[in-house]
Amino acid sequence: MNISIRLEKEKDYRTVEYLTREAFWDLYHPGCSEHLIVHKIRKVPAFVKELSFIASIENRIVGSIIYSRAKVINGKDEVFEVLCMGPLSVLPSFQRKGIGSLLMRHSIEKAKELSFKAIILFGDPKYYQRFGFVNAKTYGIQTSSGKNFDAFMVLELSKEALSGISGKFYESQIFKVDDKELEKFEQEFPYKEKHITDTQFKEE
Ligand SMILES: CC(C)(COP(=O)(O)OP(=O)(O)OC[C@H]1O[C@@H](n2cnc3c(N)ncnc32)[C@H](O)[C@@H]1OP(=O)(O)O)[C@@H](O)C(=O)NCCC(=O)NCCS
Q: I need a surface site. Which of 1, 55, 86, 152 has the fewest CB within 10 A?
């Protein structure tokens, strides 16, 4: 299986939205909103085009990774730029073949080349620890509401890059999805039935 990674192009946008919808459907809630997030993120300045990669097999897009600029703001209102990773999606029938790992490792190297300080994400620690992510608490970084939990993780991209940087993490506003907006956007896609699944009850 020959997997290639390349930068996403504008003509790939809709295909990536479809694949994101397939990857996240029924995972955290009945249905999903991640395809709308992918759709909206590309329209805001926070979107990092240079780190938006797709994985393909024989010209079929099977995976995607998206980054956006985010902020850590400390108690003195000092603002530090970091990267927010997500969504990361692999088509269900292509999962567990190393595609997600390839996208992660490739984009981490490129983010280092672009001199970003750190990547912050919300995800399963069992998956992201293998790339070096640790609990954000290690760096004194909390969510915007002042919380820490295992799924909230950080990867420092160079030695001491986060030295002196701590505070609350703020991602782009587009991650907040409005139900009405989602309902309308969903109509652009073929109907897909929603289900309640075991994965929706996993603790943070
Ligand atoms: C999570 C996801 C991107 C991983 O991509 P992938 O190509 O399937 O993963 P890889 O083949 O690179 O890695 C497989 C390994 O990750 C583990 N893994 C895959 N998905 C996992 C998950 N959700 N949680 C924990 N471990 C996971 C597998 O058990 C396997 O472990 P092993 O190497 O010890 O056997 C993909 O499964 C996906 O799109 N899932 C649905 C959407 C999602 O959860 N995205 C991430 C949200 S933060």
A: 1
